[in-house]
Design goal:
conserved putative lor/sdh protein from methanococcus maripaludis s2 fold; Elongation Factor Tu (Ef-tu), domain 3; OB fold (Dihydrolipoamide Acetyltransferase, E2P); six-stranded antiparallel β-barrel; four-stranded mixed sheet; 4 helices; elongated
Length: 389
């Protein structure tokens, strides 16, 4: 190959290589320009929310059991047989209402015996008193020795003591007769009746139970760490408590909460579980709560009045602290420190905002302070999307 041919080949190679370099670098250049938006830094598309103001109750939630304020297990105080059952299972009774009548013939006989003994000793006392008065006259006339009068005085004291004992026996017999009629000690609902007419009952025999349903209590425990908040709320006044049955989602009618107040805080923290026992009392006229039910109790320890509320998803926590990104007038992301006061559901009450900011909720993952943003959607307090700006 001559030198002319070699030079021609070298020239062609140089031309082809230059063209290839131009094509490759030219294709990459538009991509770089597009990534920057053509001019200046990149713009991040974000969604923002407008904070809302509302009263936020700070709640402590616990699971508890419905317990009656009072429940009485009726038992016979004598050994006898049931003569009449005056009530039915599930019936509501009033205090003093007759519930069971027992065979009281033996008690009536004991009362008659005690009264007869009282009458006999009363007659004996009257006889001794007459003898004593007569003897006093004889002693005064020196017809009877003083020792005989002293003996009669002792007999008079003994007769009076016997009379007192007889009177006590009569009262005791009357009590026994009263035991034959079993009445309701309080108003409430009758449970299962375990005896029937003719049943033999003894001192250990349970006849029925009476349970007070209105008002009614809910007993539950709270962590020791919440004790200070509960005590502080209790000092301020009545502490509101809500109790709900079922899943507590509000979709079930049985989950409708019942309102009450905190009625009892135990005086000792359980050192084993680290909890303290508390009770709340509820009006229960419609029997929404039933003894033994498993319920969810929510204690309002404080009310944050007119608090600023934002979605918890907007809050960022890292080594620099707790903050949110807000969009300023120049459409830039500005980190703003906040303090999370209380979280509830998907929202949180915070401090550090004045309520007029546009808080970034979506698109904040790769943001840096001062980055340009474009708002795609704004959500107002009611949760309705607004047109982006």
């Amino acid at each position: 190959m001559n030198q002319k041919t070699i030079a021609l080949v070298a020239t062609l190679v140089a031309v082809i290589g230059g063209a290839a370099w131009a094509v490759l670098h030219g294709a990459n250049e538009p991509a770089k320009t597009g990534a920057r938006g053509g001019v200046g830094p990149a713009v991040t598309v974000v969604s923002v929310v407008l904070p809302r103001r509302q009263d936020v109750p700070m709640l402590l939630q616990a699971h508890g059991t419905v317990t009656p304020v009072s429940s009485v297990d009726l038992r016979s105080q004598i050994t006898s047989t049931i003569r009449t059952v005056h009530i039915k299972e599930g019936q509501f009774v009033t205090a003093g209402q007759l519930m069971f009548s027992l065979d009281g013939r033996n008690e009536l006989a004991n009362l008659d015996r005690a009264r007869a003994q009282l009458a006999r000793d009363l007659a004996a006392l009257a006889d001794v008193e007459r003898q004593y008065r007569r003897s006093e006259e004889l002693v005064a006339q020196h017809f009877l020795a003083q020792s005989a009068l002293d003996t009669l005085h002792s007999q008079l004291d003994a007769a009076r003591s016997s009379l007192n004992a007889d009177q006590a026996a009569v009262r005791a017999a009357k009590v026994g007769v009263n035991y034959s009629a079993i009445v309701a000690p309080m108003a409430g609902r009758v449970g299962a009746i375990s005896v029937f007419p003719g049943s033999l009952v003894q001192l250990s025999t349970s006849l029925a139970t009476i349970t007070v349903l209105d008002p009614i209590d809910v007993a539950f425990t709270l962590p020791e760490s919440n004790l200070a908040d509960v005590l502080a709320a209790h000092k301020r006044g009545a502490v509101a408590v809500e109790a709900s049955t079922g899943a507590g989602t509000g979709t079930d009618a049985s989950a409708k909460p019942v309102s009450g107040t905190l009625s009892f805080i135990d005086n000792t923290v359980d050192p084993v579980t680290g909890t303290i026992r508390v009770k709340a009392r509820f009006g229960n006229r419609d029997s929404a709560l039933w003894p033994g039910q498993y319920v969810t109790a929510r204690v309002t320890v404080q009310m944050l009045a007119n608090a600023i509320v934002i979605p918890q998803a907007a809050i960022i926590i890292n080594t620099r602290g707790t903050f949110v990104y807000v969009v300023d007038d120049d459409q830039k992301a500005v980190p703003t420190p906040v303090t999370r006061l209380y979280g509830f559901g998907a929202d949180a009450a915070v401090s550090g905002l004045n309520g007029s900011e546009r808080v970034i909720t979506e698109g904040k993952q790769n943001l840096r302070p001062g980055d340009k943003v474009r708002v795609a959607a704004t959500v107002v307090a009611a949760g309705t999307p607004m047109k982006g700006q």
